Amino acid sequence: MLKDSAKIQEEDAENANLFGYTKHSPALPLYELKDVENTLPLINPCPLDEFFNLENGIRFRFRGNAHIPGAAFIELDTPSRRILFSGDLGRPGDPMLQAPEKPDKADYVIVESTYGDRVHPTDSTEDNLLRIIHKSLQNHGPLLVPSFTVDRAQDFMYLIWKLKQENKIPDIPVYLDSPMGIDVSKLFLKYPEWLKIGTDVFTEVFKSTRMVTSIEETRHLAKNKHPKIIIAGSGMMNGGRILTYLEEQLGNPQATIIIPGYQAAGTRGRTLSEGGTEIKIHGIYYKVKAAIEHIHTMSSHAGQDEIIGWLSAIKNKPKQTFIVHGEPQSANALRLKIKDKLGWQCIVPQLMDSANLN
Question: Closest Cα partner for 118 from 299, 316, 344, 270?
Answer without folding.
Answer: 299
